[in-house]
């Protein structure tokens, strides 16, 4: 099959990592895959994921950022550009994605603001919408939020990357969605430090966390408050906690507790970082199948994380410790429990290593191909051409059933 992926840019965050790996897998299986951005169409080849995650990809992001800003300012002027930005950028992106689109059997929208282009193209291609978060939460502007929310009502074949997201789409939009969990690279995220040597009675424990102060829902403020409470509780037992952080930028505040910022870490270096820690603590308020917790599981380290969005792979007390978001007391208690019970922690780590075997890219791509094949069988072009046909006065036979009209009837 020929498959086009509609991308708002060529980024390097977790969602792009997932899409690039699926595109690698599909192209290696003989499919003709294209990445469509507002600037160009790229014929995808196996192995391109690695090159797209290099600084070249970040350059593309900056080019597109300037492209949208300059275009909007030239049309509206600087004073009103912020108010007009959401609508104008959507219009511009939709137009340019359609313009660069390569005729395909399947077209995959990958982000809420690319879904409108996918809908326009639905008369010519099976339209899939691969959702990787409930993306309205990314926006503070109400117009942008509503534009994002409306995409869940579009008549596209929806794919949710987690059961949490699927439940939102079904419960609040009364719409069915396939579930397609991402994969992880088990050749990279693997055990580098023997878990058996980590989970013992000892006086110093290392906890690793992700720092991101720009997105409050990542929960870094909650992480700092939790670590502070854990340290206060354990110091009476003579147990110390080293808190190591990774992320794009160091914290801008001290948060009243010590930490060590280890910088930007990716790939095998990140896997080793996870593996050397005793606990990986990731307290997001909500994320739809976040990769860091399951990558840490694959690296042989106990994960303490939160609902919501981790339901597919994180099972409390079995392969991880799962907390209610924003509940500092509960998060602190579970970390202390893990430290006080290293034998139980080790048992959960071993269970987690079994869990990750289900999430190889090969198995996940099998599931994706099944979805594509099923959607292709269910695709009915009349569902998508009706509105344009009606507006332009093209009254075809398929409309007779829609209007319950017998075109051959006569007046007697």
SSE inventory with pairings:
Elements: E1 2-6, H1 14-28, E2 32-36, E3 41-43, H2 48-52, H3 55-76, H4 81-100, E4 106-109, H5 115-120, E5 126-131, H6 142-150, E6 157-160, H7 163-173, E7 178-179, H8 195-198, E8 204-210, H9 220-234, E9 240-246, E10 260-261, H10 267-276, E11 279-282, H11 291-298, E12 302-306, E13 321-323, H12 328-340, H13 342-355, H14 361-378, H15 382-392, H16 398-402
Helix pairs in contact: 1-14, 3-4, 9-12
Key traits:
seven-stranded mixed sheet, alpha/beta, 13 strands, Rossmann fold, 412 residues, 16 helices, 2 domains
Please, could you describe this protein's structure?
With about 400 residues, this protein is of the alpha/beta class. Helices cover about 45% and strands about 15% of the residues. The protein folds into 2 domains: about 1-180, Rossmann fold (3-Layer(aba) Sandwich); about 195-360, 3-Layer(aba) Sandwich (Rossmann fold), CATH 3.40.50.2000. It is built from 16 helices and 13 strands. It has a 7-stranded mixed beta sheet. Strand 8 (about 205-210), helix 9 (about 220-235) and strand 9 form a beta-alpha-beta unit. Helix 3 crosses helix 4 (about 80-100) and helix 9 (about 220-235) crosses helix 12.
In short:
The chain is an alpha/beta fold and 412 residues long. 45% of the residues lie in helices and 14% in strands.
Distance between the termini: 52 Å
**Secondary-structure element sequence?**
EHEEHHHEHEHEHEHEHEEHEHEEHHHHH
Give the tally of structural domains: 2
Number of E strands: 13
Strand order of the largest sheet: 3-2-1-4-5-6-7
Helix segment count?
Answer: 16
């Amino acid at each position: 099959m020929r498959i086009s992926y509609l991308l708002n840019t060529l980024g390097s965050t977790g969602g792009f990592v997932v899409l690039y790996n699926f595109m690698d897998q599909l192209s290696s299986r003989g499919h003709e895959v294209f990445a469509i951005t507002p600037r160009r169409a790229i014929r995808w080849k196996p192995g391109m994921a690695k090159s797209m995650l290099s600084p070249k990809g970040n350059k593309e992001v900056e080019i597109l950022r300037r492209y949208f800003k300059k275009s909007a300012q030239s049309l509206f002027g600087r004073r009103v550009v912020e108010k007009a930005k959401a609508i104008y950028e959507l219009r511009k992106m939709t137009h340019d994605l359609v313009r660069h689109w390569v005729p395909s059997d399947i077209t995959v929208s990958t982000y809420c603001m690319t879904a409108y282009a996918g809908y326009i193209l639905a008369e010519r291609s099976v339209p899939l919408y691969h959702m990787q978060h409930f993306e309205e939460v990314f926006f503070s502007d109400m117009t942008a939020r509503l534009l994002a929310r409306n995409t869940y009502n579009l008549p596209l074949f929806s794919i949710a990357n987690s059961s949490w997201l699927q439940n939102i789409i079904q419960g609040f939009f009364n719409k069915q969605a396939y579930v397609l969990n991402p994969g992880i690279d088990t050749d990279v995220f693997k055990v580098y430090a023997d878990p058996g040597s980590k989970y013992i009675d000892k006086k110093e424990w290392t906890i690793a966390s992700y720092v991101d102060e720009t997105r409050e829902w990542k929960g870094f403020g909650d992480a700092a408050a939790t670590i502070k409470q854990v340290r206060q509780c354990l110091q009476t037992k003579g147990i110390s906690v080293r808190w190591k952080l990774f992320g794009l930028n160091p914290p801008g505040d001290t948060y009243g507790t010590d930490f060590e910022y280890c910088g930007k870490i990716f790939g095998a270096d990140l896997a080793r970082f996870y593996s050397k820690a005793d606990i990986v603590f990731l307290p997001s308020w909500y994320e739809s199948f976040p990769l860091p917790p399951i990558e840490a599981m694959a690296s042989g380290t106990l994960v303490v994380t939160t609902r919501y969005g981790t339901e597919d792979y994180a099972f409390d007390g079995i392969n991880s410790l799962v907390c209610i978001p924003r509940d500092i007391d509960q998060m602190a208690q579970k970390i202390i429990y893990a430290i006080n019970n290293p034998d139980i922690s080790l048992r959960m780590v071993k269970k987690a290593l079994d869990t990750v075997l289900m999430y190889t890219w090969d198995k996940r791509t099998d599931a994706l191909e099944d979805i594509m094949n099923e959607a292709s069988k269910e695709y009915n072009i009349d569902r998508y051409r009706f509105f344009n046909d009606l507006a332009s006065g093209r009254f075809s036979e398929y409309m007779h059933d829609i209007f319950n009209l017998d075109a051959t009837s006569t007046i007697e």
